[in-house]
């Protein structure tokens, strides 16, 4: 089984288009004199709603809270969505959209080595072409042998998208590999029998560090070279070759694992848990925020988990949530419930995940705590402090060994 075709999802894996959509929504609401306030993290949570129209409907209904669902509301939702979609397309054409780390280097190397390149896009065809030009220049369309896009757009219909990709790829799915950006897309690609790797979009928090659909999950393609690669460092010619080689090795192993890649270290989350233990501090979802603050002070911790009766993770709440709550709710905060402010879509990791990857997740997502989950059950919690301490201890040990070796050679 040889790798012949590389399939890249345009919206998410090629470039972070959700940043553009977020700004388009903001402009559409501003033009309509609606006081829409939504940060990047909150907007990311609405990706699970599917289509951009469903997300627009959610926000319009929230702004018109209390009003009956009339035909006027439906007309307003459609009008707002049409305007936001038009602004989105204009922004793709007028602004520079940066590619995800490593993807342009992969494209250049794959073309040089004679691989077939396919672009899969849920965007409208006209927006897809605008994105290609923004990311890859005026001849961006010529980079791909096949572009699978629909003028109305596929929306959230990933199954139809990958059914069409499978038909147009020109070879059996076993000779292809898909570079995806979200959990739903990876599921659909796997259902179409494609080997899949997922580079986690910042706007798809539903994609766990360890994928339940059997797809390898990375923060970005440069992690195939090294989990410690600095995003600001340009890839060298050797790096590009190594990137393509790693992708081929993943494909030949049916994307089962990354264990055969020559990463610089093998630290795992399980190593941290062995040192610190698996005990976690939890709080009831109905506890008050006053009780939460007292628990933080008593336990000298910065986050607590919310579990159901079976030990399944329901949410996480941190000191940062308390700070935001004070700003938003003021004096009403102490008697509010934990469930009102907790984060429900929790980014998690598994015991076998590499510490380098976990550190990258924490840095890019701006989070400081990751629950460790096995089969849906929480088995531990690690913080950015745990990661840094473990790495510092390792560096100190390496330095000590090197000193001993140097002394022995004198």
Task: Give the gist of this structure.
This protein is an alpha/beta fold and 410 residues long.
What's the structural blueprint in terms of helices and strands?
Layout: E1 5-9, H1 17-31, H2 40-45, H3 52-63, H4 71-94, H5 103-112, E2 116-124, H6 125-136, H7 140-143, E3 146-150, H8 158-168, E4 176-180, H9 183-191, E5 196-199, E6 216-218, H10 237-252, H11 269-276, H12 289-299, E7 303-307, E8 313-318, H13 319-329, H14 338-341, H15 355-365, E9 369-374, E10 377-383, H16 384-408
Parallel strand pairs: 1-2, 1-4, 2-3, 4-5, 5-6
Antiparallel strand pairs: 7-8, 9-10
Helix pairs in contact: 1-4, 3-4, 4-6, 5-10, 8-9
How far apart lie the N and C ends? 53 Å
Would you report the number of β strands?
Answer: 10
Strand order of the largest sheet: 3-2-1-4-5-6
CATH superfamily of the largest domain: HAD superfamily/HAD-like
Residue fraction in strands: 5-15%
Features:
410 residues, alpha/beta, Rossmann fold, DNA polymerase, domain 1, CBS-domain, six-stranded parallel sheet, two-stranded antiparallel sheet, 16 helices, 46% helix, 13% strand, globular
